[in-house]
Amino acid sequence: MVNAAGKFGPYGQPAPASATGVHDARVLPGRGQTGAELVRSRIALQVRLTSVSPGDRLPDAGVLAEELGIGEITVRRALEAMCQDGLLDRRRGRTGGTFVAQGWDTIVPALYDEGEAASLSAFHLLLECGLVAHAAGEVPAGRLGGLQALVDEMDQTEHPGQLLMLETRFHLDLAEALGGAGVRELTADLLGRLCLVQPTPHLDVVRARNRCHADLLTELGRGALDPAVQAVKAHQNTHPG
Ligand SMILES: [Zn+2]
């Protein structure tokens, strides 16, 4: 296609690239993240899931590249950028490598972005409502057993990190139970990004949300679509109070 200026490419001037730095919350984020963003969000998710902790050594770039299905050079650049942000530490020498920074929990709040958090949360809500509606009345009884075990475990734990880890696992496993492995990956993208842009929810909020988890499983189990969707929405609307 040739535009009015006689050149290939889009008509007119490209839209200014977010000159104000304000994220447009009307644009719903999908899987559109770059390789570097994928590295970032997956490392953040693994920290939330306590698969790695501050001070732990990360797998080599080649291993990460293979696991994420992206190029090793992209992984190296992403790790370098995370080092510059203070999220990771590079150490040289025989015991060297790339480590999760000891100060991870104090660095992350500098990255909070209310607009992006609202946008990601809105998309996650739509995704879960859609999954619940899609699966309504067709969830085999045994499929929800693992999710119920997570709800029970959340009720019993006093440990904040454990509670947040179980909260995240619930939503990943819910996505897989209702939508399959691909939807789990999409959910992992969203939740990993949220770990970096949204303040950690207050533990009382997470406990209240666990009541919504329990309600959701009950309603899914009896195939009640409207109450199940209401439980998903109530989860999102749980705030400290
Ligand atoms: Zn939850």
UniProtKB/TrEMBL annotation:
Note whether Transcription regulation occurs among the keywords.
yes
Region entry Disordered, spans: 1-20
Q: Which UniProt keywords apply?
A: DNA-binding, Transcription, Transcription regulation
InterPro entries linked? GntR_C (IPR011711), TF_FadR/GntR_C (IPR008920), Tscrpt_reg_HTH_GntR (IPR000524), WH-like_DNA-bd_sf (IPR036388), WH_DNA-bd_sf (IPR036390)
Task: Report domain HTH gntR-type positions.
Answer: 33-103
Q: Which Gene3D superfamilies match?
A: GntR ligand-binding domain-like, Winged helix-like DNA-binding domain superfamily/Winged helix DNA-binding domain
- Protein name, please? FCD domain-containing protein
Q: Which organism is it from?
A: Streptomyces longisporus
